[in-house]
Amino acid sequence: MQLSLHTDHAVKFLICMTRYSSRSASVQDISGRCGLSAQEVAGVLHDLDRCGLIERSTAGDGLLRLRNKDPARVRVGDVIRCIEAARPATRQPGAFAQMFDMAHAAFMEALNDYSLSDIAHLSGGEVARTGFPTGAFGVSVMVPG
């Protein structure tokens, strides 16, 4: 299964937010930790907000935090499903469409076995210490090769 770069950036941003789960952080703090540009962050913030994954500070200071403050309760498959629903791919009709739909649903359910907290730990601890290595993608951190 292939996910869009937009979805990958969204997951990567959320993984980096796990470090700030108990408090708010600026977009610059989080994007710097993830190695995402301001343009990449701007591209995913609207969808993360629409999916109810982040909340913005009411003080007008531009700070963000995970809406569900416990990243162990945020399921990866649900995150990806919601982000991809914002930008649906063109579905190709054909004899195999139902088979691929079923495979995609099974893939999302398998990803729901993992939380944001789990994939932050699976990333080898980079998020907890120094952020992602340059060029690393969010989903590729948890899905080898």
What features would you describe in this structure?
By secondary structure, the protein is mainly α. It has a single domain (5-142), classed as Winged helix-like DNA-binding domain superfamily/Winged helix DNA-binding domain (Arc Repressor Mutant, subunit A, Orthogonal Bundle). It has helices at residues 5-17, 27-34, 38-50, 76-86, 97-111, 116-122, 126-129, 138-142, and strands at 25-26, 54-56, 63-66. The longest helix has 15 residues, at 97-111. It is globular. 28% of the residues are buried. Pfam families: Rrf2.
Write a brief structural summary.
By secondary structure, the chain is mostly helical. The protein has eight helices and three strands, in the order H-E-H-H-E-E-H-H-H-H-H. It has helices at 5-17, 27-34, 38-50, 76-86, 97-111, 116-122, 126-129, 138-142, and strands at residues 25-26, 54-56, 63-66.
Give the secondary structure arrangement, pairings included.
Layout lengths: L4 H13 L7 E2 H8 L3 H13 L3 E3 L6 E4 L9 H11 L10 H15 L4 H7 L3 H4 L8 H5 L3
Antiparallel strand pairs: 1-3, 2-3
